[in-house]
Amino acid sequence: MQLNKILKCLSLILVFLLLVGCQSKKETTLLFVGSFTDKKPGEGIHVFEFNNETGEASLKFTLDSVTNTSFLKLSNNGKYLYSVMDSQMPYHGKIAAFVVDSINGKLDLINIQDCGGLNPAHIDIDKTGKFLASSQYSDGSLSLFKINKDGSLKPHSQVLRFKDSSVIKERQEASHIHSSNFSPDNEFLFAHDLGADKIRGFSFNSNTKDSLLNNENQIKMKPGSGPRHFAFHPNGKFGYSIAELSGKLTAFNFRNGDLEYVEDYQSYQKHQNIYRAADVHISPDGKFLYASNRGPEEDSISIFSINPENGTLTLIEHERTYGEHPRNFAIDPSGEFLLVANQFTNNIIVFRRDIKTGKLSKLNQEIVVKNPSSLQMRTYDVSL
């Protein structure tokens, strides 16, 4: 009798496990949009649910009463979102940490820390997910933070300040750190100084107690180039800098902790007296590179193929952005869509991406957000 009861219980458990195993996996892709708020409290962050089949987006959440949340960065595991706050203000900016409610598409504030400088413009997170670097444009500073297990930020452990200049007086009168990137091996951090025409490399060890940035190595860019953003190739061997003031892309080999120059490429289609190149990203498969060009006469995405052997680029074409001032753009996790944030026309344009050719096709969907300046995307498993 006792044996029959045990067998019956085991059968029920087996049926339950089979039912659970047969449930289809449910996923949702979230789009996080950071915006400038005209230097006053306003709607700074929007969260949308993105349809991976149609390219449509539906608003799930809006964070109000924040100022100039102009750059966002998701944690490596997608559980937390970090945002600059009070960028372009005459006082120290801040970095805010949020926990992501992926089921409901909402954000909950964890904490806020002073960034240690003026006008935070960019955030990057190291490969362990334990450290965050913040780049401050206006006073040319670079800050390092420790990330706690709950996603919160400790006060900055290090702030480096740079005093330098270059040849374009109205834009390069001082150092302007526009972004920084941890290397694929996580042993270095490269900071891009638009004001000094330099990429500043630092050694970084995430396993030490202090984990500070040390041993600066200056990589000199061409005078008047203005290095702004950077992307490492998924293979960890190549890197690409986009220079705002010259409108050019520079390909590098990443070897032994150093960036070795390969070649320059013009990102704009047309010659201009003023360039405002902005952002650069590589497709998930590593075959294509995309860059954004923000006027004044051309608002476009340049598309290049990447030679897998040596990292050199070949221009495919230019695609207009159907809006003005494409400050930032993002490729969705599937690699099938590319979204462009046109800051001055308050719209985000959705393109379908041809995975084989790299070319873009505009969809009819358009996401309306005031002053969009930063995009992050992540696909979450929301199976119950």
Automatic annotation (TrEMBL):
Q: Which GO terms describe its molecular function?
A: 6-phosphogluconolactonase activity
| Assigned keywords, A-Z | Carbohydrate metabolism, Glucose metabolism
Hydrolase as a keyword of this entry, yes or no, is no
Which Gene Ontology terms describe the biological processes this protein takes part in? glucose metabolic process
Answer whether the UniProt record assigns the keyword Ribosomal protein to this protein. Answer: no
PANTHER family reported for this sequence: 6-PHOSPHOGLUCONOLACTONASE (PTHR30344:SF1), 6-PHOSPHOGLUCONOLACTONASE-RELATED (PTHR30344)
The family line of this record is: Belongs to the cycloisomerase 2 family.
Protein name as it appears in the record: Lactonase family protein
